[in-house]
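hi! just following up on the protien thing from before. the input was this:
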Amino acid sequence: MNVKNEIQYLLITRLLADMAQAGFLTALELAAARRLAAEKYSPETVWELD
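and the predicted 3d structure came back as:
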C-alpha cells in the first residue's frame, strides 16, 4: 500500500466533488476526472470498492 498515493487520491477526489458541487464540473466531467485520478494514483481502496 502506497500511503502517499492513497492520500493524494482522497484529496483530489474530494476537490473534484467540491468543484462539481460548485458547478465547475458536470457529472460527466467528474466521472472522467475520477477515472483519471484512479488510473494515475492506483489506490488499492478503489479496487476494493469495485
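The chain has a mean pLDDT of 87.
Residues 13 and 34 are 6 Å apart (CA to CA).
cheers
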